[in-house]
Amino acid sequence: MFIMKIVGIVLLLAAAVCAKHEEYNGWTSYAVNPSTFEQLKVIGQLVDQYEVDVFSYPTVQREGLVLVRPEVNDSVVKALEENQISYSVHVSDIKAVLDQEDAVNARRKVEARGRSGGRSLPYDAYQEFPVIDDYLQDIARRYPNLVKLVTPANSFEGRPIRYLKISTTNFEDTRKPVIFLEGGIHAREWISPPTVTWAIHKLVENNTEPDLLRDFDWILLPVSNPDGYQFTHTNSRFWRKTRSTVGQNTARCPGVDGNRNYDFQWNTVGTSSNPCSDTYAGTAPFSEIETRVVRDIIHEYLPRMKLFLTMHSYGSMILYPWGHDGSLSSNAFALHTVGVAMAEDIDKVSLPNFPSYTVGNSVLVIGYAAAGAAEDYAHLAGVPLSYTYELPGLRSGLNGFNLDPIYIQQVAIETWAGIVAGARRIAQM
Ligand SMILES: [Zn+2]
What we know:
4-stranded antiparallel beta sheet; metalloprotease; disulfide bond; carboxypeptidase; signal
């Protein structure tokens, strides 16, 4: 009887896991290798026309990965062939791979809980939003002299958007530069929030760089888009946007691309006015509460805010303004040299199978322009060092956004090395 029960539970669990990624049944990811700018343009048109999901953007020298839904698969393949664009199937059964990866993450979660006693945040599995949120509250309770929890607003669906202020002087020493780390605006980029919570861990629970506490005040916002982030855990793994439903057609296609919603050259390039697009810019600049929260933090701590990092994945890149046209700001020399210092220190502690970091202007490195990004807005507002981190991902399987959980701690550790390098460069300025 007992055995029967266990078997029943296991079958139920298996059924739940399989049902979860049903929507990705028949989806295929393709590697595309355009060899001319004409071919690159065709790929851009296919993305718009067939709502192809871009995992990583191709350039003429660099392979890209795109995700194609079954209804348009034949049309996309036909267009690639007609235009003689080199392509190959990358993952032919997306749902099967997602199911497999869910099982791995679930197993590691259970193991990690056993080891940590449920207290500190584990780094060997991806955590759902409530777990991260509990951690922020717990840290604030345990270290009241060092940490303040702030909840400036709730998300569109009512989840708390919270950040921690970490300071040895209660933010009252106005000579101290402020460093602001933000994560999780793009929901599916799961490796982003752990790099921000790890910074909290390294500042508060396991401080090995006392100068970083002594010399700076810190603002840490691990999940700026909690609705989208949670939706990727419970519903659609590759959801990118917020979950708001304001404006036309948003009931069918909710959400805004948070990194196209800032009031910087808003909706002029690399964005879409179609709510069903993954790069939908919204009805207006700052239409989203999730971006207004970040905007307000930036303005509250100017001119003390010297470094702003917004954490994304993937690509192993450190990107700086301007992202709408590839021109350079008057602070470009410092942006570049500090960017290189951060990347060098990351690469020193990275893994041989991780790509080396590339540093440069957003447009030049990624190969496409996009308006309305956080990095540009912060710089325009007056933050001298403002960067987008594209954290590491791997090409194999779905290891781009679904980087194997065995690498979470590694990415957290190496990204912290970059943050430390950036902070220490500010101290010398
Ligand atoms: Zn992103």
